[in-house]
Design brief:
The complex is a heterodimer. Chain A is mostly helical. Chain A has a domain of 171 residues: Cytochrome c oxidase, subunit III, four-helix bundle (Four Helix Bundle (Hemerythrin (Met), subunit A), Up-down Bundle), CATH 1.20.120.80. Chain A is 73% helix and 0% strand. Chain B folds into three domains: 82 residues, no CATH class; 309 residues, Cytochrome C Oxidase, Chain A; 147 residues. The radius of gyration of chain B is 24 Å and the shape is globular. The two termini of chain B are 21 Å apart. The chains are: A mainly alpha, B mainly alpha. The structure holds copper (II) ion (CU).
């Protein structure tokens, strides 16, 4: 790819710009920045619709079966969710700070802000891991794999009769379980929960990968007040990831 | 202008085709023209592959009993036909192939806004295609191209691995489409040349712009739907599967929220091509420019609100069905506006019946039939009778094949001299057009009749009363297939052996005709100023070069046209 970019420079070497960061088909840095900005906003638009499908499924199932969601929320650890919200909000702050640092030619500040953002992202995933592993350990899976243990059902204070209670030895009446599966129930809540938070988690991981690349370029000294598009665009993406969580937290954990 | 002319003359030997050589220079190219041609090659291959499946299906239907394949294979064949044609051919064909090549040149720029993203979306397309085609090998899907749940989601039936790999293939292809859309919107928004306001833009750009909006806003919904389907299939998620308390109709809502607008991804760029061709070959300013431009946006907008007309018989509420039916009528209005404006452009124009024009006129004819029969299906009471019959099959083939394929060939023959700097053979092109037109109507018109008489779609066997219709249809399919091969042959012959084409063989005034044929590597030395795209009097025919030149550049002896 670099070879091809090179050719284009040879092809019209008479062009007055020589900055390799400015692509040949743009007039100047501002033009390139504005185009990139429009591009990232369009990408965020499609991200919204991508998550929108899940939010739509959530609304439909919640509208038809509110009791399922009220019971389901009892399984979620509000404290861990709240800590994660704070962690992500803080990382959005550092992401915004990284843009400002690039605009001010503050290389040290830029690197620090990016490192902090990546750190927060790992922190978020760590806490999510604790939440997930607790649930999966107790058999709280999605859909057909939902076989909660007696302990977690008692711990969550589930209303008796909502799902079949396993006997003391952990066995469940298969007939009762099959009947419970036939209509939306806690297993549906956890399908939606794992799908939404899982997809969000994948976006966090993608954000970490992009930020690692930005960090490498920042250390190399690519960014300055004239050229900081990639820092800005990544921060915008990161804000969206944050924003999705800001909705997920109340919708899944808080509303009773 | 002399400096400009000198540049064109000097760059004649240095074109995008010979600027760099070797396979690698194509594989990693960032040049929008080469990427466009790579898209063209892959979508043409997809068309041929999908066509083979279609002919196999039609051959099997020659008689009511088993002729060629078992019922299971038959189910796989029509599924593959639909999936390959829709996702690998129609959706990327005009925007990604012709659009990629023409859009930046029409804007007078050197490339699309994000050339790397452009190349990436091509390779994403390739990866998606590999997933989809691999599923054939694994034991093909038999769900129909619509992947309806619960058949596609329950693990007890169907072919497990094939549904997953196909759904993932289409998921990946979706992102190729989204990235192309983002690229085109950004290019048109920020890179228009001096003097090209929104309402000086060629109509093809308006059409591509509206298409891109749909691509960016609708495709992610398909992506999440197919992701859910895949996870459902793999892990028993239970969002769509009634055995797990899921709602299969929710899948239909999600699927058609994308797939109805997707119909406009297929047909809007086609309409853009037609707007260019009709104006040029009538040598008359396109009638109702603003109406055609705005109707593209109107179609894109209203197209998002009509998906429920696919679920009139799926147990949707009566009120919802009535609203969706009304909105479906509404979307016919902007489509009709376009057709009327094209016809009015023809009126008192000096019409030249070159091959692109013949394809464009066929488009209008076939699209009108396809559009009007859509009204039958949008009518609630009639739809109950016609739902899932061959009437539906005929209707959407008239729109998608009669529309998109006709416009694709109109566009290819129109811009081929620009692509390769060589003229095609008019006779081959016209005979091919005639064969395609006749073959198409012979194939699909009988399907309207048998559909209205109750022949259900996708059935393997049928009552004997339908046999004559099926046989006529099968004969037509072979004529159509032969016509399409001939149309491609005409293009390939032209690219290899055709006589040299002038820079502007048709006398069109959009910017792409003001650079040389084939265009130089960087299209223009510096961004040209916009022209009035439909001012045909700015050009005169120059006998010496056999093409059209600007009035001010014409030799003194050249008379006024
Ligand atoms: Cu539709």
């Amino acid at each position: 790819m670099d070879a091809a970019a090179h050719e284009s420079h040879d092809a019209h070497g008479h062009d007055h710009h020589h900055d390799p960061r400015l692509a040949h088909h743009f007039e100047d840095h501002q033009h390139q920045f504005d185009t990139g900005k429009l591009g990232i906003w369009l990408f965020l638009g499609q991200e919204l619709l991508f998550f929108g499908g899940l939010f739509c499924a959530y609304s439909i199932y919640r509208g038809l079966h509110p009791e399922v969601f009220e019971e389901g929320a009892k399984f979620l650890n509000t404290n861990l969710g709240a800590v994660n919200t704070v962690v992500l909000l803080f990382s959005s702050l550092t992401a915004a700070w990284s843009v400002r640092a690039a605009q001010l030619n503050n290389k040290k500040g830029l690197i620090l802000a990016i490192v902090l953002t990546i750190g927060c992202a790992f922190g978020f995933l760590g806490i999510k891991y604790v939440e997930y592993s607790h649930k999966l350990h107790e058999g709280v899976f999605w859909g057909q794999s939902f076989h909660p243990t007696r302990e977690i059902l008692e711990e969550a204070h589930v209303t008796p009769g909502v799902v079949p209670m396993p006997a003391e030895d952990g066995s469940v009446d298969p007939k009762a379980e099959k009947i419970a599966m036939l209509k939306p129930n806690l297993h549906t809540f956890f399908s939606i929960y794992f799908m939404m938070t899982g997809l969000h988690g994948i976006h966090v991981i993608a954000g970490i990968l992009v930020y690692l690349w930005i960090l490498r370029r920042a250390i190399r000294g690519d960014f300055n007040s004239e050229y900081y598009g990639p820092v800005d665009f990544t921060a915008l993406y990161w804000h969206l990831v944050d924003l999705v969580w800001i909705y997920l937290f109340p919708l899944l954990y808080l509303i009773h | 202008m002399t400096a400009d002319a000198a540049h064109i003359v000097s760059s004649r030997d240095d074109t995008y085709l010979n600027h760099t050589k070797g396979l690698l220079s194509w594989v990693v190219t960032l040049d929008h023209k080469r990427i466009g041609l790579m898209y063209l090659l892959s979508t043409a291959l997809a068309l041929c592959l999908g066509g083979v499946f279609a002919l196999l299906v039609r051959t099997e239907l020659w008689g009511p009993e088993e002729n060629l394949m078992s019922h299971d294979v038959y189910n796989q064949m029509f599924t593959l036909h639909g999936a390959v044609m829709v996702f690998l051919f129609i959706i990327p064909s005009i925007p990604a192939a012709i659009g990629n090549f023409i859009l930046p040149i029409m804007l007078g720029v050197k490339d699309v806004a994000f050339p790397r993203l452009n190349l990436a979306s091509f390779y994403i397309y390739v990866v998606g295609a590999i997933f989809l085609v691999t599923s054939m090998y694994l034991s093909a899907i038999d769900t129909g191209w619509t992947f309806y749940t619960p058949y596609s989601s329950s693990a007890q039936v169907g072919s497990q691995s094939a549904v997953m790999s196909s759904a993932m293939g289409v998921f990946i292809l979706g992102f190729s489409s989204i990235f192309t859309g983002i690229n085109f919107i950004a290019t048109i928004n920020t890179m228009r040349p001096k003097g090209m306001g929104w309402f000086n833009m060629p109509l093809f750009l308006w059409a591509v712009y509206a298409t891109s909006i749909i691509q960016v806003l609708a495709t992610p919904v398909l992506a999440i739907t197919l992701l859910l389907l895949t996870v459902e299939r793999a892990f028993g998620l239970g969002i769509f599967d009634p055995a797990l308390g899921g709602d299969p109709v929710l899948f239909q809502h999600f699927f058609w929220f994308y797939s109805h607008p997707a119909v406009y991804i297929m047909v809007l760029p086609a309409m853009g091509v037609i707007s260019e061709v009709i104006g040029t070959f009538s040598r008359k300013r396109i009638f109702g420019y603003k109406f055609i431009a705005m109707s593209s946006l109107a179609i894109a907008f209203i197209g998002f609100l009509v998906w429920g007309h696919h679920m009139f018989t799926s147990g949707q509420s009566k009120l919802a069905s009535m609203v969706f039916s009304g909105l479906t009528y509404l979307v016919a209005v902007p489509s009709a506006i376009k057709v009327f404006n094209w016809l009015t452009t023809l009126y008192k124009g000096s019409i030249r019946l070159n091959a692109p024009m013949l394809y464009a006129l066929s488009f209008i004819w076939l699209f009108a039939i396809g559009g009007l029969t859509g009204m039958f299906l949008g009518t609630l009471a009639v739809d109950v009778h016609l739902h899932d019959t061959y009437f539906v099959v005929a209707h959407f083939h008239y729109v998608m094949v009669g529309g998109t394929v006709m416009a694709l060939f109109a566009g290819l023959y129109y811009w081929w001299p620009k692509f390769f700097g060589r003229m095609y053979n008019e006779t081959i092109a016209k005979v091919a057009c005639l064969l395609v037109f006749i073959g198409f109507n012979v194939t699909f018109f009988p399907q309207f009749v048998m559909g209205s008489q109750g022949m259900p779609r996708r059935y393997y066997t049928y009552l004997e009363q339908y046999q004559p219709f099926h046989q006529i249809s099968t004969v037509g399919a072979y004529i159509l297939g032969f016509g399409i091969l001939m149309a491609f042959a005409g293009l390939i012959l032209a690219a290899l052996k055709g006589p040299k084409a002038p820079d502007n063989p048709w006398g069109a005034n959009t910017l792409e005709w003001h650079t040389s044929s084939p265009p130089p590597f960087d299209n223009y030395a510096s961004q040209p100023e916009a022209t009035d795209p439909y001012d045909y009097h700015a050009l005169v025919f120059d006998e010496k070069i056999g093409g059209w030149v600007k009035v001010e550049d014409a030799p003194a002896t050249g008379g006024e046209a």
